[in-house]
Amino acid sequence: MNLPMFQGFGKSLMMTVLSEVGDRTFCVAAILAMRHPWSSVLCGCLSSVILTTTLSAVIGWAAPNLIPRELAHHITTLLFFGFGLWSLWEAYNEDDDDNEELEQVEKELDAAPKDTTGKGPKGKEGSKVAEDLKKQRKPFLTNFFSPVFIEAFSVTFFGEWGDKSQLATIGLAADENAIGVILGGILAQVLCTVAAVAGGKSLASKISERLVTMASGVLFLIFGVQSFLSTMY
């Protein structure tokens, strides 16, 4: 691993860990693992975060080829400063004992429509009708993947898409070695997801969102200062 790749790997690893620990997708993995087979939840969540990390890094890698590299660098610097100040502001306004993210995710998962296709009229004829209806309503993807895998994948994917960590990954890949960013991001996502699935809701509830958010804000500002100084030398 050469120096640029190692630098991209290290930055991506630190940034992703501090952005993902205790966030929405972390809580999703923790709660789903308590309600469903952990292996399906782990595979679904990991598949989703690996895909989003790779796509984000590819977008960031392509950005300097679409716009001037100097402009891409300035945009990345502004992103780091913006995310740093945003994170510190969130940390300042958060209650250290508040698990709002965890509670919100749990409510949303509880409010999700439940599968009731297995219910129907009683008796042999009713069972046959219910079975036919179940087959007709069965989504196409469930022929290849379990419903738990699909739920874990889709909830994680849409939770990741467009959030702060994804945008930061795009900016980082535009400024650093994209392969290093992908490897660091994937390793960080694997560590966070495995911790969430293994620790469950009890671990998620013990994480200080305020402390993690503050640490990520400081890290973003450090990246911003480093990126700014690199334009001056």
Proportion of residues in helical segments: over 70%
Number of helices: 10
Alpha-carbon distance between the two ends: 25 Å
- Structural class from helices and strands? mainly alpha
For the CA atoms, what is the radius of gyration?
21 Å
The ordered H/E elements are HHHHHHHHHH
Task: State the low-pLDDT regions, or none.
Answer: 115-126, 132-137
Shape field: globular
Strand content: under 5%
What about the largest sheet? none
Give the overall pLDDT as a whole number: 78
Tally of strands? 0
Question: What would your notes on this structure say?
Answer:
Belongs to the GDT1 family. Residues 99-128 are annotated as: Disordered. Pfam families: GDT1 (PF01169). This protein has 233 residues and is mostly helical. Helix content is 81%, strand content 0%. The protein has ten helices and no strands. It has helices at residues 3-20, 24-35, 38-66, 69-93, 100-111, 123-137, 147-160, 164-175, 178-206, 209-230. Helix 1 (3-20) runs antiparallel to helix 8. The longest helix is centred in the N-terminal third of the chain and has 29 residues, at 38-66. The protein is globular. The model is unreliable at 115-126 and 132-137 (pLDDT under 50).
